[in-house]
Amino acid sequence: MGYRDVYAAWQADPEGFWMQAAGAIDWKEKPSKALFDGNAPIYEWFSDGMVNTCWNAVDRHVLAGRGDQIAIMHESPITLSTKGITFRQLQDRVASLAGALRAKGIEKGDRVIIYMPMIPEALEAMLACARLGAIHSVVFGGFAASELAVRIDDCQPKAIIAASCGLEPNRVVHYKPLVDAAIDMASHKPDFCVIFQREQEVAQLVEGRDVSWHGFQYGVEPAECVPVEGNHPAYILYTSGTTGQPKGVVRHTGGHLVALQWSMTNVYNIAPGDRFWAASDVGWVVGHSYICYGPLVAGATTVVYEGKPVGTPHPGTFWRTIQNNRIKSFFTAPTALRAIRREDPNGDWIRRYKLHDLQALFLAGERADPDTVKWAQEQLGVPVVDHWWQTETGWAIAANPIGIETLPTKLGSPSVPMPGYDVQVLDEGGNPVPRGTLGAIALKLPLPPGTLPTLWNAEARFRKSYLDHFPGYYETGDAGYIDEDGYLYIMARTDDVINVAGHRLSTGAMEEVLASHPDVAECAVIGVADSLKGQSPLGFLCLKAGVTTPHDKVVADVVRMVRDRIGPVAAFKSACVVDRLPKTRSGKILRATMAKIADGEEFKMPATIDDPAVLDEIKAALALLGYPDTSNP
Ligand code: COA
Ligand code: AMP
To answer: How buried is residue 598: exposed, middle or buried, by Cβ count under 10 Å (0-12/13-18/19+)?
Structure first.
């Protein structure tokens, strides 16, 4: 069957399609049906089945004779170490950790925050929670303590599992002091913290609250897998929205397993025993779906990579890792390829390694620019698959499903919708637009298994953010079009989310920080084109009347404040002071127009602009900062 047959089979009988896909998962009790629509437009999948994620990711492979296969390969060019963990070892380690968590009172439904760098123990912590039916929430290490505190207060964890430190090429990230500061800031206090001590920095433990990873496992009874309902939350993952309050995306257990297993086979072409590597971070959805759960559920080897695409130590590090681990499918962000290409434009480093096993390169997280895709195609000689998805969906909305059939690639397009996704392009009134016309991209409800059923403790916000604007649809927040052949093109966000180095960030959250500076009366943050990172944030500040603080000082202050409050990952490095911001007559700041000026793009003077002369002032301020930047594509 080719892609079109598979998609048509889903359209003809979605229930039958997903029940068949569910057959690839081990259920303790099989679900009676796939879709539960009694509470539409809130939908659930496989709600009455009983299942355990850890069983499917670990134990069943040991039972099937794969105990000696490497499950997790840790590659750390930062610590110069490589280490493999077999499925049998993983089972023992996870059962022991889960046993220790259970002995400290963690039960099904309890929340556990995980704050760890790219080490195998991060996956073990996730799997140990899954083993008990505890709901984990992994927080990315590049966020500041206050972001961690917001998440602690929102999901109210009984425990936090953290490492003593993370390692960036130029510095040690002091995780433990960040955890301590976050707990101080948060109103909710966890019962206990488990700290994995790394040799690069040993952290001080708080007596009575903190236990050491190894110490607290001493003498405990290993835990067996606890079956949970198909609609039991497997995890909560916070992602950026319009405001500073992140959205807690909930993932239900049954649909998660079914969708990941389906995608590993059909999108990534991965079977048991194959080797798969996603070079992302466990703190992002890519890390959840395709570093941890997807490959392991599929019985494949996964790589946990602690390093960067360049500088650790050279731009050949990705290819060396692919060679040494005989990776079949590799997944990274376009930014990473741009970073490599910048240092190795002719692919000299690529040719030093034997990449015989590599069959495909997958790109996601941001728009894959045609130049970068072409470069990768030429250098690697394998299909380069751009695929489009979001934290909310957990797996690809659109892709080239090479496990079914390798479709012709179109540069600039993440190809075609996956089964389960009815992708429509709508106008402002919610009506489908003709092929080739730009509009808001929406997904007809219900969304497929594995996608978010709701936001944690915030169903009203879920409805408002995603369902209310286009009734009967899920609003993706992306704009684009579909061509004559049904290929999708994702062009921009329709909200205030920007994408910096494949990291999704909220300009609204940054504006909240800028606005809290005592000298700032008003502000705006926009995303400007960046030839390496895709976009980078840029701030505009209007100061209060009578302020005498030098502008440079205010700018330096707000740069530091964003780093301290949101984190280094925000990469907020530049801002300027202006007298006024361009606004509509009703007072809405014209951020999109400012971004177009910064990028040197043509723009139509907004009909509702209050005073067009302000745009000249903005142009002048941008020119002083070097925008438009002609090095950008
Ligand atoms: N923990 C702590 N800090 C982190 C971090 C982490 N896990 N990840 C990044 N940071 C820090 C960086 O050290 C940097 O800090 P600095 O301002 O002190 O230099 C800051 O956050 C910004 O990081 P980043 O935007 O990643 O820029 P960079 O200059 O360090 O690296 C790239 C540039 C292109 C090499 C890098 O962004 C990259 O590998 N991107 C791919 C992203 C990716 O895989 N995304 C996943 C989506 S699929
Ligand atoms: P995240 O939730 O962090 O995965 O970010 C999701 C957003 O990243 C999407 O809504 C898009 O705006 C963008 N994105 C992800 N993948 C792609 C892609 N292949 N092409 C274009 N944009 C993408």
So the answer is: buried
Q: What percent of the chain has pLDDT over 90?
A: 97
Written as six digits, the tokens of 301 are 């080897």
Beta strands in 128-205, from DSSP E residues, in sequence order: 135-138, 159-163, 166-168, 171-173, 192-196
Q: Are 366 and 534 in contact (CB under 8 A)?
A: yes
| Cα separations in angstroms, 485 against 163, 294, 481 | 49, 30, 11
Contact 401, 262 (CB under 8 A): no
Closest ligand 1 atom to 283 CA = 7
331 CA: nearest ligand 1 atom: 48
Residues 6+ apart with CB under 8 A from 170: none
Question: Mean pLDDT score of the chain, rounded to an integer?
Answer: 97
Q: Which residue carries 């879920």 as its tokens? A: 462
To test the pocket of ligand 2, the residue of 280, 291, 390, 416 to mutate (highest count of ligand atoms within 8 Å of its CB) is 390
The rounded Å distance from CA 500 to ligand 1 centre is 9
* Cα 117 to ligand 1 centre (Å): 12
| pLDDT at residue 14, rounded to an integer | 98
Closest ligand (CA of 500): 1
Q: Distance, CA 248 to ligand 1 centroid (Å)? A: 22
pLDDT at 251 over 90: yes
Judged against a pLDDT cut of 80, whether residue 38 lies above it is answered with yes
Q: Indicate the pLDDT class of residue 20, thresholds 50, 70 and 90.
A: very high
End-to-end CA distance of the chain: 40
Using CB distances shorter than 6 Å, the residues near ligand 2 are 239, 285, 364-368, 386-391, 414, 477-478, 490, 493, 499, 504
Per-residue pLDDT tens over the stretch 152-211:
999 999 999 999 999 999 999 999 999 999 999 999 999 999 999 999 999 999 999 999
Ligand 1 atom nearest to 569, measured from its CA: 21
The whole-angstrom separation of Cα 109 and Cα 130 is 10
Relative to beta strand 329-332, strand 275-278 is parallel
Average confidence (pLDDT) over 98-126? 98
CA distance 3 to 356: 26
Q: Could you read off the pLDDT of 419-452 as tens digits, one per residue?
A: 999 999 999 999 999 999 999 999 999 999 999 9
State in Å: Cα 182 to ligand 2 middle.
Answer: 29
Q: Tell me the residue length of the chain.
A: 633
HEC sequence for 239-290:
ECCCCCCCEEEEEEHHHHHHHHHHHHHHCCCCCCCCEEEECCCCCCHHHHHH
d(CA 483, CA 414): 12
Residue 633 is predicted with a pLDDT of 63
pTM over 0.90: yes
Q: Both tokens of residue 631?
A: 């090095």
